[in-house]
Structures are given as structure tokens and as C-alpha cells.
Fold tRNA modification GTPase MnmE.
Amino acid sequence: MLDKDTIVALATSDGHGAIAVIRISGSEAFSTLSNIFRPLKKVNTKERITLGFILDKEERVDQVIVTSFKAPKSYTGENLIEVSCHGSPYIYRRILHLLIKTGIRMANPGEFTMRAFLNRKMDLAQAEAVSDLIASESQVDYKLALTQFEGETYKNIKVLRRKFIDFASIIEISIDFSEENVERPNYSKLSTFLLQAKEHIQHLLNSFHLGNAIKEGIQVVIIGGPNVGKSTLLNSLVKYDRAIVSDIPGTTRDFIEETIFFNGIRLRLIDTAGIRHTKENIETIGIQLTYDKVSNAQVILYLFDAMHYNTTKILKEFSNIDRKFSINIIIIANKYDVSSKKLFLNELAGKYYNISAKNKEGIDELLENIYNLLDKRYFKSNTVILNVRHLELLKKTLSTVNNIYYGIEQGSTDDLIASDIRKALYFLGKISGEITTNDLLVNIFSKFCIGK
Ligand SMILES: Nc1nc2c(ncn2[C@@H]2O[C@H](COP(=O)(O)OP(=O)(O)OP(=O)(O)O)[C@@H](O)[C@H]2O)c(=O)[nH]1
Ligand SMILES: [Mg+2]
């Protein structure tokens, strides 16, 4: 499965920058570079970092710094070189071209990390976390990716797998040597372990929904009647005029989405068409879209106009949404700058906030309130799964664990139990990469960027 070609790619992003880094990995890495590199001083073999020139025949292309990592002490576990050149696309493309001309080839997407996995520098779950780490845009994204990369989530999976192996071997021995006087499997011990395993896997499955909400962003949807100031609130939250605001009811037809970060968390704010009964086609579509967005939201901001409102209607809509979607809802009385005083509605006591979207009053408090509503258990947890592949495998493991558990309860044969344990081992092994197929690896690593 491990391709022996020496490969090269740009490791930094394409475009102008202070420096660009070109990475070469494979047994021919050092000899390849020596064809086009002249050190400034005589090379001391103990030194890892060398200053010198990349040459195209005798022409100096660029002054570069070469960092060498001898196998197996490198990211890929192979001989690896990083050439840091000046960050001009013309320069790094010319160097890449010179390297390809010496006979090495361009790396496929994710090929460096795939080699790191195949050379046992990291397990599969860690390798997959590398791409999340690169893609992270907020503090919370980053922390999640880091815990995945450091393998915390998967340590327990490996422990589970090892315990299954222990049980499997005792059962297999007892099957093979049933005539002889060998230890019988201790099924009550296995049952206790299965209950713990079930709990642990269930916890990981539960973490997926929230883990992904964090990664994709917490969806915060602004709803309310026409003209109550939904678009104005969106603009105040994103701090620029993103949505059109006007005093004509029905201004927003389609929904408008913008991302902001608050306390390191990505919030995806969505402004919608006002909810009202209308015969106009386009507006009806907008209102339908609002309902769709509400059903996927984590937080709803329900806005009403402090000058014109009907408490009975607000309460009715509030309980409708609450009943239908059971989502966190924040009720907001907007435009309090023009209402004579801050509203106090007995019926809604403790459930709503006064703001002025137009004058940006109450906005920071509103953000704090949104943040306080979020379930932050998983933000700091180091056992969160983010990966759909892992989710599917864990679901299969859980159902197999259930089968083993009930099998034991119903006095199933050693053979059947052993075969189910092998199944669980197979699913768990596919998460960590202890069991892989070429197709699986190609599928995972092809999603990476080139140079990683
Ligand atoms: N005085 C005052 N006026 C506001 C406030 N917020 C919004 N408005 C005004 O209310 C009108 C409607 O604002 P929009 O933000 O377009 O309202 P909307 O809810 O998005 O309306 P539709 O998209 O039509 O459903 C505009 O004239 C705004 O300037 C506020 O806090 N105070
Ligand atoms: Mg609007």
C-alpha cells in the first residue's frame, strides 16, 4: 500500500507570502535536492538547517533555507526536506518545476499524512484530525481538533478494543480446546464490561451532534412579525449593514446568513422573512424557508415591536414554536428607544429582553444570553467525535455490543459470541486504522489539500 516514490508539494498556501515552504519526502529526497541546491558553506552533516542557493544550471533561482529530517525522525517517517524560499508564486513554481525535472513526482492530496499513518507516526483518527486542525477558524474549533489530534477521544476506543481481544482469545481457546481442562470464559465479567462499553459508546454518539454544531457553527435564527426590526438586529450583531432595512413590511424575502464569533464560538446568524399570513407567492416561500430554518436552529431570537404588540399573540407563537421544536427561545422587545419606557409584561416576566436594535442597545447582553443558553459540556470535553465515518462505525459497534450482551443473557453458544466479538473488533479497528483497506485510505486522504 505504501508507495515508494519520492514526492514533492508546496506545503504553504498558494499565493504571495513572506516565505513559501516546499516539502519533499521519500528515500530520494536528499539526493534529489542535491541536484539543484548549492550550500553557502561546506555542509556539516550534523546540522539540520542549511543556507544556500537553488540553481537552474548555473543561474541562481533563489536563496533558500533547507531543513532536513532523516528517516524515521520526520513527519512522514521517511527522509524529508523542507525548502523555505521567498514567497513568490513565480519562485516556488520554478523550484517545483526543477524538482519534478529531476524525476520525482507531485504528491497527491493528503499523501504526506497518509505516509505518516502508514509509517505508524500517527493513527488514522489522528491523521484525519490533521485536516480539521488546518481548517479550524475559531478557538473552540481549534481545541476540538487538537483533542482529536492528540488522540484523547480514541485512547478509550483502543482500551475497549484491547479488552475485547482479551475476551475473544479466552473464548476462542475454550472453543478450540473444549475437550481439555482449559479456563471457561467468564461471561458475567464480559457482561459487566459490555455495559460499560455501551455507556461509553453512547456518550461518544451523543457528543457527535454537539461536536458538529460547534464545528459548523451554532445556528441562531431571528424570527418575528414583519417590520419588527429583525434585519436591523442582524446588522447590529454583525456590526455592518448586511441586510436591507426599510419600514415597508415584507422587506426580507429570502433568508440572510452571516457568521460571527463570540467567546471563541462560531454563531451562524440567520435573518428571515417575517412570519405572517400572506397570499403573495414569493413571500409565502420566504415564510416557509423561515420554518425550515427554525427546525434546524439551536437558538431562536423571537422579536416583537415594543410599540405595537399583542401579548396573547406573542405567547401563542412562543408556545407553538416551543411545542413544535423544543429549541432555546429568547423573546426580545425591540425599539424600546421609542416606546416610552422599557416594557414590563407580567405574562412574559423573566422571559424577554428589551433592546434597541437601531441604537445598538442591549446587543452585548443579548450575545451573553445566547452564550449562556448553550450546552457547554462538550466545549471542554476531550471525548467528542466529529467524524461521520467514526459515527457510523460506532453505531455498528453499539448494535454488535447489544447483540453480544443479549446473546449471553439468552445462553448463546461460544461460537456465536466469539463471532460477534470479532465483528465489534473489526468496527473499532477501522476507526483507529488498525484495520484498513486501500479504498478507505484513498477516500480519507483525497479530501486533504495537496502538500499535507
Ligand atoms: N426606533 C427604532 N426603529 C427601529 C429599530 N429597529 C428597527 N427599526 C426600524 O423598523 C423598520 C423595520 O426594520 P427592519 O429591520 O427592516 O425590520 P424587519 O423585521 O427585518 O422587517 P421585514 O424584513 O420586512 O420583515 C425600519 O424602519 C427600521 O429602521 C429600533 O430599535 N428602534
Ligand atoms: Mg428584514
Residues 99 and 404 are 56 Å apart (CA to CA). DSSP finds 15 helices and 13 strands in the chain. The radius of gyration is 30 Å. The chain has a mean pLDDT of 84.
